[in-house]
Amino acid sequence: MTERTDALIAELARGLPKVERLPELRRVAAIVVGVGLGLAAINSVAGVFVKEHFPKPDFGAVDEWTLLAHALLAGGALAFALGACVPGREPLARGGAWTIALALVVLAGVGMARIGAWPGVASVEATWLERTIGCSLSCLLPGIVPAVLLTRFTARAAPRRAALVLGVGAVASLALLSAPGVIGCEYPDQLHHALSHSFVPLLGGLVMWAALLPLYLMLRPAPAA
Amino acid sequence: MPLVGGGASERERAWGALMAAAQDGDAAAYETLLREIAPALRVFVRARLREPVASEDVVQNVLLSLHRARHTYQPPRPFGPWLRAIARNAAADALRARTRRAERETALVDVERIADESEPSRADAPLSARMARALAELPPAHREAVELIHVRELSVAEAAAQAGVSVSALKVRAHRGYKALRKLLAGGERND
C-alpha cells in the first residue's frame, strides 16, 4: 500500500462519526405508494362533490389503456428513482427504465387515439382552458406530497444523476395520483383528456421537476470530508 | 471484472459486517475494512485505467467516494455490488477527466510548438514579424499572459504575481491567448 493511501485511510477513520443509514428501499416505496394512493382516494371522493357533472362520454378502451400506462409509469419510475439512489441497485433502476419505456409506448398509442378522435379546434369551449388547468392542478397539487418525500430521500442519497432522478420521481408521484382524473373526469373533450389526464404525469412532471430542483439543493447535505 | 476472487461471498459478508459497524461509528472496523479492500480496489482500477501512477489517485478517489456514500450501504444486502458500483463510477469519472485533460494538453502543446518556432532569436524574421502582429491583435489580458510566459519566460506563478491575478486565472488567459494565436497564425499562413 502506498504511503499516501495509507495516510488517507488513517485520516478517514480518525474520529469517524456515526451515520444515519438510508431507509430500506422497500419501506420508502411503501410509504410513497401509500401516501400517493391515499391522496388519490381523497381526491376521488372530493371530486364527486366538487366537480361539475356531465354525461360520461364514451371513449372506448382508451381510459383503460391510460390507466395501464400510468400504472406501468408509476411502478417503473418509482423503481428507477429508488434504484438510482443506492450504489449496487442498478438492476432495479434498469428494470424501472425498461418499464418506463413500455409505459411510454402505451402512452404514445393513447395519445394517438385521443388526438385522432379529437373533432378539432371548433369543439373547444370558452371554458376549456379553465377546466383543463383545473383538472391538471387537481392531480399536480396532491402530487407534491409524494414528490417531496421522494426528493427528501434523493437528497439524502445524493445520487450521481440527481436531476434525472428528481424528474423521474416527479413523474412517478403524478402517475400514482392520476387514476381519479382518468376515471372520473366527465368533460367531453379528447384533447382535454390527453393534456389533463393521459399526459399529466409527463407534462406535470416537467413543471414539478423545475420546482423540486431548488428543494433538492436545499435539502442536500453539505459534502462531508 | 470481479473485485474479489475465490471465497468472495465469505469475504464480502465480513466486509459488509465491518461496514455496518463503521456506520455505527466504529473507527477501527472502518480502518480494517478500508485496508482490506484497498488492494482489491487497486487491481480493479488498474485493470480499467492501465496506468499505475494515475491508478493510485483513482483508488484514493474511490475510498473518498465510499466514505461519502457510506450511509447508502444497507446491511444485510451484499457488500460487493455496492462497492463495485462505487469503484466503477469513480473509475469512469477518472477516465472522463483524463480524456478531457489530454484534449486540453494536446491543444497547448500545439500552440507552444507554434510559439517556439517563431521565437525572435531564430533566423526566421518573417514568422517573428507575423507572431508580433498576431500578438498585437490579442486582447490585452491574453497578450500579457502569453508574453510573460513565452517572451519573458517567467514561471506561471511568477507571471501570475506580475499580472496581479491568481495562477488559475493566468492559465486560463494564457490558454485563451494560445488558442487565439493559433487561429491568427493559421489564418496568416493561408493568406500568405
Can you tell me about this structure?
Chain A is 74% helix and 0% strand. With 225 residues, chain A is mostly helical. Chain A is elongated. Chain A has one domain (23-47, 55-219). The mean pLDDT of chain A is 88. Chain B folds into 2 domains: 8-100, Orthogonal Bundle (Rna Polymerase Sigma Factor, Chain: A), CATH 1.10.1740; 118-191, Arc Repressor Mutant, subunit A, CATH 1.10.10.10. In chain B, α3 crosses α4, α6 packs across α8 and α7 (156-163) crosses α8. Helices cover 80% and strands 0% of the residues of chain B. The interface between A and B is medium-sized, with 33 and 37 residues.
Largest protein interface, residues of each chain:
A-B, 33 and 37 residues
Strand content range of chain B: under 5%
Round the Cα radius of gyration of chain A to an integer and report it.
21 Å
In percent, how much strand structure appears in the residues of chain A?
A: under 5%
Oligomer: heterodimer
Q: CATH class of the largest domain in chain B, anyone?
A: Mainly Alpha
Low-confidence stretches of chain A: none
Question: Roughly how much helix do the residues of chain B carry, as a percent range?
Answer: over 70%
**Largest sheet descriptor of chain B:** none
